From TrEMBL:
Organism lineage: Bacteria, Pseudomonadati, Pseudomonadota, Betaproteobacteria, Burkholderiales
Matching SMART domains: AAA (SM00382)
Molecular function as annotated in GO: ATP binding; ATP hydrolysis activity; L-isoleucine transmembrane transporter activity; L-phenylalanine transmembrane transporter activity; L-valine transmembrane transporter activity
Protein name as catalogued: ABC transporter ATP-binding protein
BP terms from Gene Ontology: D-alanine transmembrane transport; L-alanine transport; L-isoleucine import across plasma membrane; L-valine import across plasma membrane
InterPro entries cross-referenced by the UniProt entry: AAA+_ATPase, ABC_AA/LPS_Transport, ABC_transporter-like_ATP-bd, BCA_ABC_TP_C, P-loop_NTPase
Keyword line: ATP-binding, Cell membrane, Membrane, Nucleotide-binding, Transport
PANTHER family in alphabetical order: AMINO ACID ABC TRANSPORTER ATP-BINDING PROTEIN, CONSERVED COMPONENT OF ABC TRANSPORTER FOR NATURAL AMINO ACIDS-RELATED
Every ABC transporter domain range: 5-237
Domain of life, source organism: Bacteria
GO cellular component term, pick one: plasma membrane
Amino acid sequence: MQTVLKADSIKVQYGGLIAVNDVSLSLEKGQVLGLIGPNGAGKSTLFNAITGFAPVRSGSVTFFDQDVTNAPPYVRTRNGMGRTFQTERPYEDLTVLENVLVAAFLKNPKRKDAEKVAMSALEKVGLEDRANQLSSDLNLARLRRLELAKALALEPKVLFLDEIMAGLNPPALKEMIEFLRTLTATGMSIVMVEHIMEAIIQLADHVIVLASGNKIAEGSASDVINDERVIEAYLGTD
């Protein structure tokens, strides 16, 4: 099986604070990797370091055998990384379609081609009927789908999802899990930072647990949720 992403001994430090300490991971083609841990564990910082939004103090990031450790985000995006953000960032004065077009133009400079890619992304996430609606009128569940559509319009080889399930009600959560299942069925590789354990259990092939910037456990979802170190990190000790 092909290794599409490898992070070796990643360290991220801000002044005297070590946010991520010597963490390594790898992702195989078609695999879903879950990153979990309590608040402040370093999950999003590691995620940002891999995608180019946080500086790496030491260690390396390899994407499809290319060293991208010091590459800016747009280079990583052109190479095949597509990501969502914890906080939705739509252009509120643009329509849903126009928001996705912004992403589609990165690899498709001709408007006709970009519109085709953007509409395809909207169809995949079930927002094609909202294409001409202002993004500011979308509810939370649809904003999350818009984030996904923007990432898919980048035509990624690996999709990075940063707490895409947060705040969704049970029906919307179920729909999002089912949608991601359809993506994984196509062979899409995914790295997901997530607090919703239901999603991790149903989707992740492999799970890494962080606490205080350190990797404390990894394995299948069932293995890590029963690991005493993980239970202690989440619940503390008596």
